[in-house]
Amino acid sequence: MAGHPETAPLRPRWGGLSVSLDLGHRGALCLGFALVMGPFLVLWYHLGLAVGSGQADWLWLAVPLGRRWLLLVRSVGLAVGVAGVGTALGVLAALVLWRWHRGVLAYLRWLPLMLLPVPFCVQALAWWTLADAVNFLLAWLGLGAIPFQGGLAAWWVQVMALLPLAVGLALVGLETVDPKLIEAARLSRGDVVVFRRIILPLAAPKILAGAGFLFLLSITDYSVPSLFQYQVYALEIFAEFSASHEPARALALSLPLLLVTGAVVAAAIAGLRDSLQPPAWTITAWERPPVWPRYFRAGQYGALGLLLGQLALLLLGLGLSAGGGSRMVDTVWSAAPEITYSLWVAGLSTLLGLAPALAVARELNQDKAARLFWWLLIAATLALPAPLVGIGLIALNSSPWFPWFMVEAGLMPVWADLSRFIPWVALVLLVQVKSQDPLWFEAARILQTSRWQTWRQVTLPILAPGLLAGAGLGFMLSLGELGATLLVAPPGRATLVMRIYNYLHYGAADTVAGLCLVLALTVLVAGCGAALTLAAWFRLLPKHHRLRI
Prior knowledge:
CATH architecture: Orthogonal Bundle
Shape: globular
Radius of gyration: 24 Å
CATH topology: MetI-like fold
Number of helices: 22
Largest sheet: 2 strands, antiparallel
Distance between the termini: 42 Å
CATH class: Mainly Alpha
Structural class: mainly alpha
Number of strands: 2
Strand order of the largest sheet: 1-2
């Protein structure tokens, strides 16, 4: 009977109250919206003021003509090349890692993801160092040097920098394929046919979404192209604001890029929205080892070799270039203020961003019209180039009502990190929220009498894995943020990645290599620490609630 208390459908309750009545949830949603969309909305406000005051000719900046059209086409071409090759290599390498389900290999297969937050400029220095070593060897042999500049160098560095993400996203997509379907298909078809007709179509939504994210990260990055003297559209936005100091002009100029990134992100989100579900980590996909053709197996291990080579180059190459132990100590000591400030900014932004990210994740999981709004919000924020976020924060800072202490206390980079990475953390938390059974919370609501007791004994332990994973991701991404921080960092204070980027323009000296190694190791330690904490937490849960990765 509809409406009867014993037969009415159960809905998840959080802390004893439904989501729609939870004031804390609504407050976190409002805070998240203000932090994420505030810089973007103020740019539209400035553009409206400029047009209303007779500066409508600025709107012509939104029409890419001449040089700007060439830059846009060049940027799209570079991003398509990065996304296409990166996705293909990611799928090939993930096919090898997919079979690692037991022992320490089950954990090691996720280690490449720890490289994701390492800034592109650090990856560029590693390949720059290798190119210099190769050219030195060629000169010793009497051969000509290989030029490592221009679009080809920028494309290669971005492909290799994003390869860990491509492998991770492809692996997540493959893990969502039901192993029973694979084994049933293998009874009548070869493994290559099963891969082409069963595995690839089922994993396609997440793999294509991953390709979209690779495209997005490539087209909005200007650090690598600028280091290799390759002009792209994102750098044009930065240059325009540096010359005019007009937020409205920067927004108008960025509109063509926003149309491209918005369309790609919308397509990627559409593929993820209905297929985002917890993977079957505990089930081995291949009861019997697959039999691949020789060429296909060579491609898989070749892609995995590139991934491992990227890790070795980043750590060993930078370590050799950084000099001896005493030199490293001097490098770290000289950069102590930047290291301390970076850790403070990343830690504070991580703590402040968890509650809004969790609130957004809950909204994304609701079966109501508001869910579409929050998905559109996620798509819009992921499409924003990093310089535009920084420019929006500068525009906010010029407002008379803006809190003065935000700049004095060095909190502007914290806001930049929150604006950029709350959506990413929300997507991680969404996977955790989707994996929870609503009956657990209904049982807690019936059996528990205290909201605090329900939160402490039920809600928090269930959400803890997602919170740990989201906090680790947010911290690592914040450590490597450059595009917006470069614009809003207070005078006299800089993050470690800012110092590295500024020094890179003066050559790849051993000091710069040492700083890059410090940053890479910090990111790896943070990521491994989050992963080990997560694994330890799972072991504390009852056996039937454990999630083995």
